[in-house]
Amino acid sequence: MFRMLLAATLSVMAMVAGPAAAGPGAKDELVIGITQFPSTLHPNIESMLAKSYVLGMTRRPFTVYDKDWKLVCLLCTELPTIENGLAKPVDLPPEEGKTQGKRGIEVTYTIQPGAKWGDGVPVTTRDVVFTWEVGRHPMSGVASAEFYRRVTRIEVKDERTFTFHVDKLSFEFASIGGFQLLPAHLEREAFADPAQYRFRTRFDTDPTNPGLHFGPYRIVEVATGSHIALERNPHWYGPKPHFRRIVVRAIENTAALEANLLSGAVDYVAGELGLSLDQGMAFEQRHRDRYAVQYKPGLVYEHIDVNLDNPILADRRVRQALLLGIDREKLTQTLFGGRQPVARGAIHPLDWVHADDLPAYAFDPKQAGALLDDAGWPRKGTGIRQNAAGDRLALELMTTSGNRARELVQQVLQSQWRQIGVEVKLRNEPPRVFFGETVSKRKFPALAMFAWLSSPEGVPRTTLHSDSIPRPTNNFAGQNYPGYAVPEMDRLIEQIEVELDRDRRRQLWHAQQQLYARDLPVLPLFFRADPFVVPKWLQGIEPTGHQYPTTLWVENWRVAGP
Amino acid sequence: MSRFLVHRLLQAALLVAMMSFVCYALIGLMPGDPIDLMLSSDPRLTPEDAIRLKAIHGLDRPIVERYLAWLAKALSGEFGYSRLYAQPASAVLGPRLANTALLMGVSLTMAALIALPIAVAAAARAGSGFDRAVNALCFAGISVPTFWLALVLIMIFAVQLGWLPAAGLPMARDPSLVERGRHLILPLATLTLAAIGGHVRYVRAAMIEALGQDYIRTAHAKGLHPRRVLWRHALRNALLPYVTVLALDCGALVSGALITETMFGYPGMGKLIFDAVMGNDYNLALLALLLVTALTVFCNLLADLAYAALDPRIRQG
């Protein structure tokens, strides 16, 4: 009711609204609207998209995936490869009681010449070593410490060149996007007591200190809960950015965000944290004269996790029938204007390891019915199927309440599955309960619909390896929520992780995707697309479709020429 | 009177102490914890990370143990650090409290100042066309969802007319007082318009009841000017229940207005409390909720004193 009221109001108001938004003119300030305010600005404590978005303008990771999903250097000068000699696999000495040691790797990077913190102090290997010390300390509060633990030693060659000694060989050896440098000259004092570091770090106690940043911009104002203002960093080593000042404004309500955009209070709504797809499409319809709405389907994989402990769903034929019973092409065409491509598996078609020959599971209610008949769920008339014991083929489909797109998809699925004789009950929970309890502790009785955000060529160890099934014994820490335990999948994941040869790795990935598509521990739906609402006078924003935000290339943003 | 005051103050202190445990336990009883949520959104986190992070944030200890540790520190004036903002909870709270007190204080005052004369006038002409129109407007005001009202105001005054900014806080560095004021107009208007209806209804009902009392008839019989009877005799009695409503509303001076703050991107207490509770930020949520409790209790105490001032029978009895 409220949504209808809201939509009607926006439509009517938008029709009568005049062009209040200011034109570009000699614009040197850009106001970006996002829907979340970062709670902390420390680059390594807590992972939060809003923080990554803002910090994308103030710092640079050593390596990132670019818009074409290729790994590139940003803070380093050359990407290490085995061919160029900057990466060397090594045999590590055997651990006590073992005869054979693991394989590790030594990877060498050089920091960009001219890289300086915002207070003029050069970025050096001292910062690298300090960041590693903070990251590996168990009390520092760094969220993902796996990489820091894997680096056993840092060999400092000079002020700018260093070598990581890593105790695990992995094809991802060159990718260190999560290793975000900390300024040793400012942060060492706060780290004197590691247990207190997260409370004393200058990123939170003195966030406008220029020495904390070395990107094209530095933070000059933090109005907690409202906005963060950034201005050009005079010590930035790259090309001078166009905008003198950028303000990132947090407006959590997307309808209010849209109104702010129309009023000119906000220039641009970030796709990473902005309008939903349906809002973006509706906005495009109304304001295509002034705004270009860009859509890039990315690595947000909407899917349905299947609880394999459920006796009905333990049968692969039932899972396959469920997928065949969904007209996913029509669903994405009708609900999302075809902007969210149907997924054949968890690997995105833009990823170089994506297999093109996977079964499509195109809509085929007849085949779905045949599979269910085979599985012992015959249909009498047009009603719900029942097995020999008289049990109805009834499943519960859960998702996050309040997410309109998911609730719509849920209703379509319920209707389509009913046509093949499957009764589906819908039960939704607030995200807090759904993710914090139901999914993470595998309490969903049958089907749980949500999304994963991955990285290009992201190995699904935590989501598909049998070691990662959440159990009380591992403190419910894994993310293999379906409870999928197949030795072949475990073996493939383990082999992919250490295979350095691209061709052989592609073959392994192919086998992994075939197995995934055959077993369907997860029902793939589609890859989500985020709308970037860009005024026509603003150029240079290139959506990436993965976890690295567009702001990492903010120096390329500019006002369109005459 | 002083005995009464001491008694009420002791009651209030006990209530606040009890509320501290209730709030702490309620937050702790919520499903999942922040690390569980972090795990479900970040596939890079390992089981070792989860165990380490829970230990760092004290989430691996029983809730009673955590509460007692907090209480011991709170009694010595230390309210701990906010987990979400990595700052002392009191430091996070300060600016938000000031923002909310300004927004809610002004809107509450404006709502009361506008509602009082309208309610008195409507009660004096009960059943008239004016009264019916006021009633209809009041019901409309009460029924309209705040987010919708905010959106309509933004669309008219910020988008269509371009007269006022859509955001609650200016983004310029060191904005002038006028600029700050301009940004506050729409959030204030939203809150005031949303509140007026309720206030008018309370005062109008109390006034109609007061106007039917014997002492009003006596006052009229004594030949007092009708305006004096209305404003000095009837309103004084009608204000008694209204004071209770205002006292209860005082809690909002620190609890904020979540929806309005969200719509205008205004950093106030409503959004802060919501985020702190949802993010299991015990120290911050607890301090904020205790402030709300303490202020509500204090305002009720003030209401009791106001009762005594307004009604001599209470003072004497």
From TrEMBL, chain A:
Keywords: Signal, Transport. Residues 102-455 form the Solute-binding protein family domain. GO terms for molecular function: peptide transmembrane transporter activity. Its main location: periplasm. Residues 1-22 form the signal peptide. GO terms for biological process: peptide transport. InterPro entries: Peptide/Ni-bd, SBP_5, SBP_5_dom. It is found in: Periplasm. It comes from the Bacteria. GO terms for cellular component: ATP-binding cassette (ABC) transporter complex; outer membrane-bounded periplasmic space. Belongs to the bacterial solute-binding protein 5 family. This is Peptide/nickel transport system substrate-binding protein. It comes from Stella humosa. The lineage of its organism: Bacteria, Pseudomonadati, Pseudomonadota, Alphaproteobacteria, Rhodospirillales.
From TrEMBL, chain B:
Keywords: Cell membrane, Membrane, Transmembrane, Transmembrane helix, Transport. Residues 97-303 form the ABC transmembrane type-1 domain. GO terms for biological process: transmembrane transport. It is a multi-pass membrane protein. This is Peptide/nickel transport system permease protein. The chain crosses the membrane at residues 12-30, 101-124, 136-164, 184-203, 239-264, 284-310. GO terms for cellular component: plasma membrane.
